Amino acid sequence: HSGFIAIIGRPNVGKSTFMNRVIGEKIAIMSDKPQTTRNKIQGVVTTDEAQFVFIDTPGIHKPKHRLGDFMVKSAIDTLNEVDVIMFMVNADEGYGKGDEFIIEKLKQVSNPVVLVINKIDQVHPDQLLPIIDTYREKLDFDEIVPISALEGNNTDHLLDVLTKKL
Ligand code: GDP
Ligand code: MG
């Protein structure tokens, strides 16, 4: 299997942390400041079963300027070109306006979407199911996978899930 995976999600949900973990070398800029990653940065991940080309898609969040509108349009074009979309959200902040904006955009895209709930190291296990249910109501996700990109929890399972979508 091989294919292109777009990573989307609000600033600071952990997209760069995940990419850096699975790619094994730093290719995206990590920062506590939102919107540090301005370019589509690609990295290749090779497992026993698959090869993924990951695409960082920073332009999908709510635009503040006209340049932002252009970035959103370009991000939607990217989402229509890849094989699978990985939509990452933050378990310790829950559903919010930023997620809502992206979900509205995802309704315009027909590719499979895997919802990745990141930072599960920050929440009590009992909190996870209500979070999953909240997101499940918003969009018909192909899969929902909780992970901790920082600690590496369930990231191998996520790669398995993505492999099955290619
Ligand atoms: P991006 O804007 O989506 O690329 O987010 P980053 O990867 O830059 O991460 C933003 C912040 O969240 C950084 O301080 C990361 O260390 C932190 N972070 C990312 N993933 C996790 C995680 O799984 N658990 C915790 N506790 N923090 C995380
Ligand atoms: Mg980033």
UniProtKB/TrEMBL annotation:
Residues 1-166 form the Era-type G domain. Residues 147-149 are annotated as: G5. Its main location: cytoplasm. GTP binds at residues 9-16, 56-60, 118-121. Residues 56-59 are annotated as: G3. The keyword Nucleotide-binding applies. It is a peripheral membrane protein. It is found in: Cytoplasm; Cell membrane. Residues 118-121 are annotated as: G4. It comes from the Bacteria. Keywords: Cell membrane, Cytoplasm, GTP-binding, Membrane, Nucleotide-binding, Ribosome biogenesis, RNA-binding, rRNA-binding. Residues 9-16 are annotated as: G1. Monomer. Belongs to the TRAFAC class TrmE-Era-EngA-EngB-Septin-like GTPase superfamily. Era GTPase family. This is GTPase Era. It comes from Alkalibacillus silvisoli. The gene is era. The chain holds residues 6 to 171 of 301 of the full protein.
